[in-house]
Specification:
Length: 257
């Protein structure tokens, strides 16, 4: 019973169902992100690289013949044993044009050298290969001190094009009044995040869950505002005519079995 609840709980964190608002302090953001992502993931086929894969929450929605999770090498990620390959944050440990598609969700804001990072994704993609990328626009500082940037739609589009990608589809997730409710819920959560599991659970049920419900209702009643949104969701492809941008540092990796 406990194991079943844990599976359900972890699913609600990234793919929230009808009751996800009760347990997920980031319900509104993850709901909007999932809705925008789900229609784009079908573009990823063949060999797919999940960059900064974490727990690989969207893997089951990708119809890949070969799915590889790549993440930054830390003791915590080694202990998790979830990534297929760990690397040192420089050159990706793969040859040029190795993958048909790439997925990168909520990672770019943690990269201090975004041009180098996108250059590596460009390098390991075949010409014409698809990239599905998400990155926050309005969000709190998180995973400190490794939180380095926020991207407007214009800045992100320019950054991608400058690094050899053609933007095919651009969506602004949670561009509605639910974004305001999510900010409120996140503010409350941050106040109690480190104050014990029991207190967090009580605050979730008594304060954050009602905020989630108000946000759902407000998103239906009030008009959308495309200048005020939580996340950028992009489908791009590696330009066929653009040469690969290679990084000169030597590859370092650990294959996790």
């Amino acid at each position: 019973m406990i194991g079943t609840f844990k599976v359900w709980y972890h699913q609600q964190l990234f793919d929230p169902g009808p009751l996800g608002w009760m347990v997920n302090p980031f319900y509104l953001a993850r709901r909007g992100l999932h809705r925008s992502l789900i229609g784009l993931l079908s573009e990823l086929r063949g060999g797919v690289l999940d960059v900064g894969c974490g727990r690989m929450p969207y893997r089951r929605f990708v119809r890949a013949e070969r799915y590889t999770g790549l993440d930054y090498d830390t003791p915590a990620r080694r202990a998790d044993g979830l990534a297929d390959v760990l690397y040192d944050g420089g050159r990706f440990p793969f040859p040029d044009a190795e993958f048909d598609g790439a997925l990168c969700t909520q990672v770019l804001e943690h990269v201090f050298t975004p041009e180098q990072f996108l250059g590596e994704i460009h390098r390991v993609l075949r010409p014409g290969g698809a990239l599905v990328l998400t990155v926050p626009f309005i969000w709190d500082e998180h995973e400190q001190p490794y939180d380095f940037g926020r991207y407007s739609s214009f800045g992100l589009k320019t950054l991608l094009e400058r690094n050899g990608f053609e933007v095919l589809n651009f969506e602004k997730a949670s561009a509605d009044a639910g974004a305001i409710a999510q900010i409120c819920a996140g503010w409350v959560y941050k106040l109690v995040a480190r104050r014990g599991k029991v207190l967090r659970s009580l605050i979730q049920l008594l304060i954050i869950a009602p905020i989630n419900l108000v946000g759902l209702l407000a998103a239906v009643i009030l008009p959308r505002n495309l200048d005020f949104y939580l996340d950028n969701v992009v489908l791009a492809r590696r330009s066929v005519s653009t040469p690969s941008r290679c990084v000169t540092s030597a590859p370092t990796s650990t294959v996790v079995s």
